[in-house]
Amino acid sequence: MSSQKPVLAVLTSGGDSPGMNAAIRSCTLAALQSGYKVIGFTHGYYGILQNKYIELHEHVVRDIIHCGGTILKSARCPEFKEDESQQQAAKNLEELNVKALIVIGGDGSFNGLIQLSRYYKGQVIGLPGTIDNDIDGTDYTIGFATAVETAIEAVDKIRDTADAFERIFIVEVMGRHSGFLALNVGIASGAEQIITFENFINPGKELKKIAEHISLCKKQRGMSSYLIVAAENLWPGGVYRLAEDLGNYANIKCTPCVLGYIQRGGNPLAKDRILATKLGVGAIRAIDNGKTMLMIAECNRDIKEVSLAIAVGHTKTVNKDLLQAQESVLDIAALAKQQVL
Ligand code: F6P
């Protein structure tokens, strides 16, 4: 590439999340100000492997802060786990004179970055972008707040039907290894039950717990709506099986509903746009200061630089207060004792 300016590259990888475009925008604008030529590889790590990129001029990113998805497209790239691909990527980056690479994505994408840095000697920085909020070292990931809001809107609508029919619904939300989405969506939508990684014992005990709670609610309230929010990938066979299992266990009839990919789309909330902007600017600051192998994070409202190894090496746990809050507000037996039902 014939350019006197140092080149900075950005890519988005893994599940898209609302706010990724805002992050591309802020990285680009801050990098242009720092004197870089900025390129964006398309389709995640495939872009590096196949030398597919676009130049990110100011006018390209000017009007994308409000858009969901990612203008750079995204992908999961299993080939990138192989040494050969990482070496090829390092070679391509060096040939393009890329001085620094920013990857916006989740822990899988950060692992790719760590592996790549064994061969690529430029600076590498990760920005946490996933609706799952499952990256340790940052309070929130880009996209989580919007995904929670999107899911709540959907669950509120399901509540209307559940109320109208006095029906039990099981709503499955995303978050394949962690319960941040399930717990936050469940609490904010007033779900009667939340089934998530953090409170799951085993299917037998869960069935008993749910069946008892449903029966207690029925006794206290009479027929009424009842919502169960469940994390994906948790119940063996999924929420359709859970509905069947509840039927077989206690003759409970419920309607399963998988929210699915609507949770990943849509315009980012202000919270995600602002987080993405702060993290993007933080990434360029770190690069300007010669740093590498970092994730830019937000902790207690401050922008922090966290080692990439820490970000992928630890499991982020859901705050116990959230679990306790849910259990306390839905303790039907305690409420009955106080005769407030
Ligand atoms: O990691 C984000 C996420 O949306 C998870 O919540 C979900 O399990 C997964 O991606 C789905 O991935 P894919 O788009 O590959 O089906």
Structure description:
- There is one protein chain.
- With 341 residues, the chain is of the alpha/beta class.
- The protein has helices at residues 20-33, 45-49, 58-61, 83-95, 107-116, 144-165, 180-188, 203-221, 238-250, 270-288, 308-313, 320-329, 332-337, and strands at 7-12, 37-41, 53-55, 98-105, 123-128, 168-173, 193-195, 226-231, 254-258, 294-299, 302-307.
- It folds into two domains: 7-143 and 268-311, Rossmann fold (3-Layer(aba) Sandwich); 145-264, Phosphofructokinase domain (Rossmann fold, 3-Layer(aba) Sandwich), CATH 3.40.50.
- Strands 3-2-1-4-5-10-11 form a seven-stranded mixed β-sheet, with helices on both faces.
- 6-O-phosphono-beta-D-fructofuranose (F6P) binds at residues 14-15, 76, 106, 130-132, 174-176, 232, 264.
- 6-O-phosphono-beta-D-fructofuranose binds next to loops.
SSE blueprint:
Elements: E1 7-12, H1 20-33, E2 37-41, H2 45-49, E3 53-55, H3 58-61, H4 83-95, E4 98-105, H5 107-116, E5 123-128, H6 144-165, E6 168-173, H7 180-188, E7 193-195, H8 203-221, E8 226-231, H9 238-250, E9 254-258, H10 270-288, E10 294-299, E11 302-307, H11 308-313, H12 320-329, H13 332-337
Parallel strand pairs: 1-2, 1-4, 4-5, 5-10, 6-8, 6-9, 7-8
Antiparallel strand pairs: 2-3, 10-11
Helix pairs in contact: 1-10, 6-7, 7-12, 8-9
Bound molecules: 6-O-phosphono-beta-D-fructofuranose.
